[in-house]
Amino acid sequence: MTERVLNRLARLNRTLAFLLAAAVVFAGLLLPGIVGSAVLLLVAAGLIWVLSKTWAVTPPPMRVTRVLILTLLVVAAAYKAS
Fold it and tell me: Fewer CB atoms inside 10 Å of the end CB: C or N, the chain?
């Protein structure tokens, strides 16, 4: 199943995937309290999964960027939850 999901993700238009992810994150930031926090944490969980599957083929500078963005997303979710 993992291979199938990764193949589908690879076929997505990168611009469309970015815009969809940005829209979901924006919605999570706008939704109140714990609901917004849950949306942000679900996005973070998905990104952690993708990052774990692509870590070996990701160049080191891009790894740092991805981990930084992921950290900011989790911090934003924790801030919304409190």
Answer: N
Residues in the chain: 82
| Residue 65 domain boundaries | 2-81
Model confidence pLDDT, tens digit, residues 59-77: 999 999 999 999 999 999 9
- Asked if residue 65 lies in contact with residue 47, where contact means CB atoms within 8 angstroms, the answer is no
Which residue in 46, 32, 26 sits closest to 81, CA to CA?
32
Q: Which residue has the tokens 């993992």?
A: 2
pLDDT of residue 9: 82
Number of domains observed in the structure of the chain: 1
Residue 47: which residues within 8 A CB-CB, separation 6 or more? Answer: 66, 69, 70, 73
